[in-house]
Amino acid sequence: MENGDGNEGTSAFHVPEWMQIQFADQKQEFNKRPTKIGRRSLSRSISQSSTDSYSSAASYTDSSDDETSPRDKQQKNSKGSSDFCVKNIKQAEFGRREIEIAEQEMPALMALRKRAQGEKPLAGAKIVGCTHITAQTAVLMETLGALGAQCRWAACNIYSTLNEVAAALAENGFPVFAWKGESEDDFWWCIDRCVNVEGWQPNMILDDGGDLTHWIYKKYPNMFKKIKGIVEESVTGVHRLYQLSKAGKLCVPAMNVNDSVTKQKFDNLYCCRESILDGLKRTTDMMFGGKQVVVCGYGEVGKGCCAALKAMGSIVYVTEIDPICALQACMDGFRLVKLNEVIRQVDIVITCTGNKNVVTREHLDRMKNSCIVCNMGHSNTEIDVASLRTPELTWERVRSQVDHVIWPDGKRIVLLAEGRLLNLSCSTVPTFVLSITATTQALALIELYNAPEGRYKQDVYLLPKKMDEYVASLHLPTFDAHLTELTDEQAKYLGLNKNGPFKPNYYRY
Amino acid sequence: MENGDGNEGTSAFHVPEWMQIQFADQKQEFNKRPTKIGRRSLSRSISQSSTDSYSSAASYTDSSDDETSPRDKQQKNSKGSSDFCVKNIKQAEFGRREIEIAEQEMPALMALRKRAQGEKPLAGAKIVGCTHITAQTAVLMETLGALGAQCRWAACNIYSTLNEVAAALAENGFPVFAWKGESEDDFWWCIDRCVNVEGWQPNMILDDGGDLTHWIYKKYPNMFKKIKGIVEESVTGVHRLYQLSKAGKLCVPAMNVNDSVTKQKFDNLYCCRESILDGLKRTTDMMFGGKQVVVCGYGEVGKGCCAALKAMGSIVYVTEIDPICALQACMDGFRLVKLNEVIRQVDIVITCTGNKNVVTREHLDRMKNSCIVCNMGHSNTEIDVASLRTPELTWERVRSQVDHVIWPDGKRIVLLAEGRLLNLSCSTVPTFVLSITATTQALALIELYNAPEGRYKQDVYLLPKKMDEYVASLHLPTFDAHLTELTDEQAKYLGLNKNGPFKPNYYRY
Amino acid sequence: MENGDGNEGTSAFHVPEWMQIQFADQKQEFNKRPTKIGRRSLSRSISQSSTDSYSSAASYTDSSDDETSPRDKQQKNSKGSSDFCVKNIKQAEFGRREIEIAEQEMPALMALRKRAQGEKPLAGAKIVGCTHITAQTAVLMETLGALGAQCRWAACNIYSTLNEVAAALAENGFPVFAWKGESEDDFWWCIDRCVNVEGWQPNMILDDGGDLTHWIYKKYPNMFKKIKGIVEESVTGVHRLYQLSKAGKLCVPAMNVNDSVTKQKFDNLYCCRESILDGLKRTTDMMFGGKQVVVCGYGEVGKGCCAALKAMGSIVYVTEIDPICALQACMDGFRLVKLNEVIRQVDIVITCTGNKNVVTREHLDRMKNSCIVCNMGHSNTEIDVASLRTPELTWERVRSQVDHVIWPDGKRIVLLAEGRLLNLSCSTVPTFVLSITATTQALALIELYNAPEGRYKQDVYLLPKKMDEYVASLHLPTFDAHLTELTDEQAKYLGLNKNGPFKPNYYRY
Amino acid sequence: MENGDGNEGTSAFHVPEWMQIQFADQKQEFNKRPTKIGRRSLSRSISQSSTDSYSSAASYTDSSDDETSPRDKQQKNSKGSSDFCVKNIKQAEFGRREIEIAEQEMPALMALRKRAQGEKPLAGAKIVGCTHITAQTAVLMETLGALGAQCRWAACNIYSTLNEVAAALAENGFPVFAWKGESEDDFWWCIDRCVNVEGWQPNMILDDGGDLTHWIYKKYPNMFKKIKGIVEESVTGVHRLYQLSKAGKLCVPAMNVNDSVTKQKFDNLYCCRESILDGLKRTTDMMFGGKQVVVCGYGEVGKGCCAALKAMGSIVYVTEIDPICALQACMDGFRLVKLNEVIRQVDIVITCTGNKNVVTREHLDRMKNSCIVCNMGHSNTEIDVASLRTPELTWERVRSQVDHVIWPDGKRIVLLAEGRLLNLSCSTVPTFVLSITATTQALALIELYNAPEGRYKQDVYLLPKKMDEYVASLHLPTFDAHLTELTDEQAKYLGLNKNGPFKPNYYRY
Description:
Four copies of one chain form a homotetramer. Chain A has two domains: 72-258 and 451-469, Adenosylhomocysteinase-like (Rossmann fold), CATH 3.40.50; 269-424, Rossmann fold. Chain A contains 17 helices and 15 strands. The first copy, chain A, has helices spanning 36-40, 92-104, 107-115, 135-146, 163-171, 184-195, 211-219, 235-246, 261-284, 300-311, 323-331, 339-342, 361-366, 422-425, 431-450, 465-475, 488-494, and strands spanning 126-131, 150-155, 176-177, 204-207, 229-232, 254-256, 292-296, 315-319, 335-336, 348-351, 371-375, 394-399, 402-406, 412-416, 460-462. In chain A, the strands form two sheets. Chain A has an eight-stranded mixed beta sheet, with helices on one face. A seven-stranded parallel beta sheet of chain A has the order 3-2-1-4-5-6-15, sandwiched between helices. In chain A, helix 2 crosses helix 5, helix 9 crosses helix 10 and helix 9 packs antiparallel against helix 15. Chains A, B, C, D: Its cofactor is NAD(+).
């Protein structure tokens, strides 16, 4: 999950520099356990999102004082299986309770399970997955199991695994290889343990960030012969897939889950509308009323941020490079400016462009005392934080995720999360949003697995609109929302099937 | 122009009943002037939008007491030309003033004219047009002239022509054939006079509603050999084109201007956000605060209506058939209901679905006293107005565009514009929106006319994103809005051209 | 009614210049009918609000081509009475229908009538009234009748009388003296006919603007011996009363209805929130989205205007003199500026200060082309319109209530309603607001008439909070709103009576 | 500080039960240190607000592992004084830094200090204070010192003292008697140490909650002979004062700071608009979009909560007992219901009435699974939490301040802060709001101390409007807000002094 990053303000299709590293250059050996220092040296080969810091509502369970590496432990679950590697299998019970609570808030997946009692649309599917390992992911994984699939799973981020949840999954028979605080070497080792198995070969990939896909491409390219498709959730991973496709190297169909309507609008617009306020409050306790704010980028994330701050009584300025988004900002009541025009007067600067160096040292030099700077966009490139690491500036950590950067004249800038994603670092992602994403992933797997020969070629696809609509419909009961049905006469008049899809593909919502 | 109708809530691709009338069935002779009664009998053959009532800010100039038909008059402009047919050429001066005022509010077209001083991108173009004839259209037409084109023009609606503007265009040398209050026979006669000319053959079509295109298809199919393309603005006309394309009968490229981003968002979302309030106030003087309203359909128009009414303190319910739009309504804070659930309690019912019989007689029977019913969607099909024409109900016209329909027990329903489009009938369309549309049309003409062989096939296209972005950029100065430019480094990072396009085609804005 | 003017942004207690004219100076004789020119000369002695132009929804009934002055006509109603003077008694039937429609929208007064079937709280009351004569006033008057009062009535504005309604009242036996288009002489003559009657002397006054009160003070001061109290609705009239009180000249209790909570919040905040949009749209058809607007004054009216325009996507600046209101503007998300700072860039200037010369010629000189200037505040003093009447500027009336003022360099300013109240001139007042005002007036009359000796002295009072609450409660059914009742235990805990009043007097709502 | 509680929805004038305890009944001796158990027994005599839990942004300083009671320690500051009692004088440096940061955000007090360089308006003042002891209070205290006053200070809440700040004040020479975690006995002992001093007698009281005032009344009534006035900030304390006044027992003038405009609007409306979102997010990570919420009480706090949740896409219902507030809710777009009507369907219940037992066990029984219940109103009486302490219900603490109460059938209610104030328990109060309050307190002290004989009698007063305006004006620079000044001509026209006050006393803002 890379919530809130992406094609805000500009395109989803930028080329991160690491992409230019050739796959072939990477030579790692996984049988030798490197020393602690040695592990660090591998850090170039891991995707940035895999090491982003990540806060979680459930972080209170973090009592991992046990220093032994899970790779060195011998653990068995109660059924005698040892085909997993987690921090501590004994934490399973606590993890199970977390999963049960999450189940209550993910009615769509539970509804899928119910329907699966009759048919098993994933019978025969062998899914290898690489995602954040949280209670919500566990609900997804166990749903895939209920739908008939076999799963093996690794973490897509070295910090984000909830150990108790991993333990509960392992206890329930899922081969899970993940723990909080993996080294980069551990990271790849875990992925390898998922795919490199005697007598088992995956036929589906569920990826988040593209590292798993990358690994198979590099180490086990022959596996793709049996793989029916890839489901990818992150901006970064989707980008990698489009690059492969463009280069003619994509050898199976792939489903771009990131750009499905429900995910885009919910993950970005609606979720960020709330998390910008939450992130700012938790870190700074500031009052929004009357504050002057500049939001860089008026994509979905920017729209969400602007709407929320305007509603709280802030005066919001917007910067944009795209004239269409710019005109939308105007019509929504925001002055469209260049950053330079307002940088001296604003109280808060928020980036959500997906671009790099949107806030430069020059901008930072000109900000007024106590100006807050944070990033809601992609990765950690938008604010040129590196430019602040100079001798004349003093850094003072005043709270978790909050640094004061102090100029020689005493001016302080309040930098949040060191320029990383504010909503991931200083806020939490609502289960409801995770539910939409997980349901979309499940349906994408079902679609690719069951698609008749020829429906999908070796290309990147968006989820068929009808399935997008289905994901949405599974979430309506949460709001006690009642959908109207077309009469036969109306369906005929509109030239539509009564069950959808209801819109042409280019419809913008 | 069919502002605000269309693919709200459901698809743009319904099949209106008139489409089932075969082109070949229509046999009309235009040399014989029918009697007044005779003209009526032709009404089946004209598109519905051509006869929609239409209110205009400039209707105060309507002093047409002259009863002679323009077709029977001999008129010459000051240069001696008589190649036009308007109500009264002497009204030219007044019309010119209207055009000059409109020019002030259409800076984008004026900017195009300026750029045309160097090059003439439409040199050699012979455009036949069929649109509403208003001051704003005149600015478009004269801009096309400045860009090098020859134009001939008819009206796309029998009521909407501003006679003074038509006179001013004729005086300025434009062969215009249009007046307010044409009969249906006049309507086709005018179109025919535009295309059926000695020594002049059109090579471009600008249509609004599809009637002109239809006429050429039916009467002069050979003309298409020289025609480079069709630019069509209306939902109805675009629909006709897609039907032709599906049937393999489209013989030139066509540009679907209706679904360009700028038009959709501005014409529908932003414009309707304002016109719903305007239309309701002008007709009923009601207060919005505290009123319960149900909005049927949560497409762009529905979104605009809901946002405006919520902001004014109304309590808004939404009905939807599409689960994605339904979920958006939930997240935007509207209860999603079936119409039946709230029909007894609401003060206002607004339709914007593009569907038919959304409000039935049964609903109307259950509404409470003084409930207001109106339509912001497509055409006049959404409310089953015909069902109210029964003997037990009394109709009372209380104001222009406002009827009280009275039940035997005294209950009154307030029906606006007899179920036709409220925003066209009881409000006005801001020049700014018309400017966006007109600029888009001009650029679509330029694109089709100058496109290299093979870029466009015999199909229906959306405006290239770059031109959509260009239209937007031409309107930013109106808001004193300052666009940010990418640095070289940023453009490279994003993999974008610094001048756009800035988004993938599927971007939803 | 002087809806929307008043203590916006500044104090209610300005001293209009006419107040400096001594009452004793005015010597008019009413038996001699002056010539048309002669009538004009009296115009100094009439309050400004009496001659403000006034638009009404019902103005379409204005077919008064009869040139004979009502004062010269002999008319009788169907019961033979001729104790009235209206335009044409034969219009009674049409007027009655208007009254019946208004009754449907004034449920509070109708509820009072029902309760009056048992007791007649105004039995014995002889009320002389001077208000706008509209269908809504008629509902008030007939309610007062049903409550037991005798009434005689004149118009408080020479333009605002609906002749048909006046006829209907006269036909129903009410001695009404009013018609549309009275001369100033007529105005005072009508008032005189109300009070100067053989064998009838008023014991209550209901005034709107203070002209009636003024007249009695001047001509029949002895009448006050029998008068139990004055109910005054307008800012101007209330101001006169406070002046009298301060000067020790107020000889009966007076009720300031203008400053009751319900009137202030509804007439000003909620009503202006809607009427600013309505007034601007009807006059200019402008689009609000993206427009830069400066609102002068952040009282209730300014708050309403700002909220509405912000919601429609305008960028709003505020000017204020009062630091508390200024701080509210900040917290509500508006930049607080001096007019000079933004005058060059704004598209619209709206005054609602109650002050004079807020917009000066110097400001007007600096506005950009097409800037719209209008007034939502008090009277017509806020914009220095007189300063625009200079030879170098050209005035062009482009529509009713819309003037273009053109500078020598071609710059045009769009001046609405010549600087008079936009919401009265170019919009309508919702019946709901009128209902609140009328109910408040009725209750104030009941309170003053029935108050035990000594409860009210010769001073100006606000309506007792309990009655304010009662007015509100009578309007809740309109919204199907369900009030919660205190339990005995809760009432005891709060130290409140279960029936109210619920707030201390200084509560601000 | 009792931020956000009070006269929401209903009256400020409830009678808390403890008020019925007679002052005379309380016989405590403070020279004998009671045992730990003994201390508990005194708890009846302390005001509820003194023991409310209280969270603070600065709680990270809470390293109080030292078990020795401060009362048993011998401490001296660096100047040798031991006239204070704090946790640990050595923490002074850290506390000083906190104070310096707070100074940056309290420009109004700093401005007062600057003006005090010329004159010392509090020269000779001997102020005894009893408030929360935080960095912001320290800025106030040191400002009072700069203005010429001598101060002695105790804490008004046994949990809220920041020990480091107390230490810094003591180090700076302020006799402060306060620490975090006082027993009730400590509480009164500290107060006593402030007033019961050899050779020093207070002539001004600054109180928050009324406990200090109460103590002096009870123990040292003679002190009032020299006391010039009381400044009281809390709802509870103000209520006590009005009771005393009513009973004829108030023997000095008192200033009701709680009901000043700036405090009311900022502390309640604007602050709660933000803190409701913050409090809910920090405790539950819920998503607001689409949630159904009922807000009990539509006073300032309720208005703030409703506006915020509506803006975030929640569907909000309101309950009210006061018809005027009810009508406001309607006009603001909220359905007014009785709690019973919606209790089964809502996702969140928020109380802000100031009343007791607004949410009863019966309501709680009918709520749906996962319903969140919290209190933004007064004290902890609004939700009948006691009724949930029954054997059949299971309580599960899932996070700090979050309990799940589980019904036998598995239904869970999410109870926040055990029904205490959400915004105090689970959120923080912005410095900006504290700045407004502190400035108001300082000005109230100055006013009472300097008022000429006879201006204030033995009664409770609101701050003079001019000073309220002055407080506001001192905070405008924070927003770079520019106030407009009246011209002489305008001031004359309005009958106002150019420097204010600008509004009549009854103005509602």
